[in-house]
Amino acid sequence: MRDPVGIPTPEEEFVDLSVRLTGFDAFELHATGLAGQYRTTALEQVGRQAFDRFLADLQTAGGDPDLIVDEISRDIARAITHLWYLGVWPQLARTVHSALGRESANTAFTVSPEAHTESLVWRTFHGHPPGAKPPGFGTWADPPPGAPPAGRTVPTSPSVRGEPA
What we know:
Structural class: mainly alpha
Strand content: under 5%
Number of strands: 2
Radius of gyration: 21 Å
Order of helices and strands: HHHHHEHEHH
Largest sheet: 2 strands, antiparallel
Distance between the termini: 65 Å
Shape: elongated
């Protein structure tokens, strides 16, 4: 997604910072198809000046969001991470929203129907969003990824087995 000269596009830069925020690689983030929409949402919600300051603070922190000291930039990092994982732009901290001086309401909202379906939360546990992206016919017969081997029993209490306690 870089331009012909090799300079990263704004969307590519957003994905690069999102890799640091989410722990997912750029391929997985691009695969959602939402990078551009999420970048636009973040810019609309916090404004260009605050977003640019957040980028500078992240760079100053060596790319580690945990080392960002500025309250506004930390909340922007939290909001972008929340957006990727749940497809919802969250309500900002009141102090942050007030400091930003934004005219838009400080309310959480789902960015788009695709945002829920493509949320990273489903990928964290190899799940599927209900009513969307079904795993396929008969997949219920196979254990989920990371499940204990078949044949392992779960111990039950004597009362469950019908024995006196």
